[in-house]
C-alpha cells in the first residue's frame, strides 16, 4: 500500500496517479484510491466522476491496468454496519435521519477508519491465494493532517475500547504500520514545502508509521551553465554580457538595454537555482529514497501522466 501525501499545491494527486501507472506496468494491476471527495483523479484521467466501486480508468504498458474509486464515507459506513450489525434496510433510514453524518462528525476518527479500512480491504483481498491487486495507491490528505489521518487507533482510543469498531481500528493500524505500507511525501524545491516534508516525515516516524520515498515534483531545468549562473548571482555586468553573448546570436555585441534586461532575468534565475539546490540538499539529508519529476510545460494531461510514470520507472520506483 502506497500512501501519497504532500503540502497543498505540490501536485500530490498527480504524483499518486503517475505512481499507480508506473506500478501497473508489465501486466500488473493497481488500485488508485481517492479519499477527499475532490474527484481530482477523474479530472486527471479525463473520465467521469469516480464511483464508490472500483472501475478501470487506464491501461499501462505491458498489459497492466489501473482501477480507481473515490471512497464515499456514507456508503463505507453502511457497508461496515451491514457487515458487523446486519442493519439491512435500516441503513436507508439512518441515512435519511442524518445519523451517518452525525456519527462521523462527532467521531472524526471513525471517518478515517472507514476511509483507510476500505483501502486496506483492497490490499488484503485475494482470489484464491493470489492478491487481486499488486499495489494500492492512496491519494491521501495533505502533510499537515496525514499523521492524524493514519493514526486512527489513537483517534478512536476514547471512543471505542472494545467491540467491532475497536477491532477494525486495530486491524487498520497493523496494516498501516507493517512493511507492506509506505507513506510517500511530495514536495517542491521551495522552502515551505520542503520544511513541511521534513517535519511530516519526522512526525510520521514518531508515530511509528513507515515513511517511504520523497517525490520532488515540478523540477525546472537550469537554463544557464555554471559560468553564467555564477556571473548572474554575483551581478557582474561585464561577466554577464560575456556569458550571455552566445545566447543572443549574431556577430555584434549585445546592446546595453538587452544586457540589462537579460541581467535582471538571469539574476532571478540564478537566485532560484541556488534556492533549489539548498532545498535539494535538505531532501537528500532526510536519508530517504527520492525521485524527481519534471515540470510539464503544457500542464498535466493523460499523456503527461504516462510521461511521468515512465520517468518514475526509469528512476527505479517500481
From TrEMBL:
ArsA/GET3 Anion-transporting ATPase-like domain mapped to chain residues? 3-177
Q: Which residues form the signal peptide?
A: none
Which Gene3D superfamilies does the record match to this protein?
Answer: P-loop containing nucleotide triphosphate hydrolases (3.40.50.300)
Gene Ontology MF term list = ATP binding; ATP hydrolysis activity
Instruction: Note the Pfam families from the entry.
Output: ArsA_ATPase
- Return the InterPro entries for the record: ArsA/GET3_ATPase-like, ATPase_ArsA/GET3, P-loop_NTPase
Protein name as catalogued: ATPase
